[in-house]
Amino acid sequence: MLKVQRPHRESEHEAAALELWDGDGAVRLLRHDPAAHALLLERCVPGTPLSGVGQEAALDVFVELLPRLWKPAGAPFRPLAEEAAWWADQLPRQDWSSAPDLLDAALEALRELPQTQGEQVLLHQDLHGDNVLSAQREPWLAIDPKPLVGEREFGIAPVVRSRELGHSKRDVLHRFDGLTAELGLDRERARGWTIVQTVAWAWDGELHRTHVETARWLLEAG
Question: Which one, of 30, 8, 31, 51, lies nearest residue 145 by Cα?
């Protein structure tokens, strides 16, 4: 499959992430033309999204898949601490008058978490239910990485807010509780990072509403 990208900060170094994974839980990169921003990728057949199997089965897949993707990494990937500094600068510039508590919670986490991280691993910061596809080489393969390097506790954020798996307070907290327990993660650090990225990625429209709801449910769970 040929993928031609529009350059964007979040997809920077996607090819390098796929090269590091080398097909271990993710699609293989076959060729890369940096000048054309083009990637020739292994095609997933039949390519059914993981979101279609239901929440419980999907969580089992994520529990098996995430540790395989969390490979020790450094350059050229952007550090989570650097991305966190960018979020801390950008978030106060947006209108959070309807949810000032979420902005406060995100900024507090951004002051506390970046400098106290654990082991640095490669993170797929958009690993939701529609970015894992059924395939023949393996039952499920991750696609579309938006790589960062940071601690594992950040890595469950996109799964927790994966509204494709069910969007209710019960669904969100079930995913959060299940992943933190099964993967042995620090619950409070994972909750802080998930609130941070969910708020940072709360764009306009329907996505904004569901992200705000997800962040608030997590905030209330503390």
Answer: 8
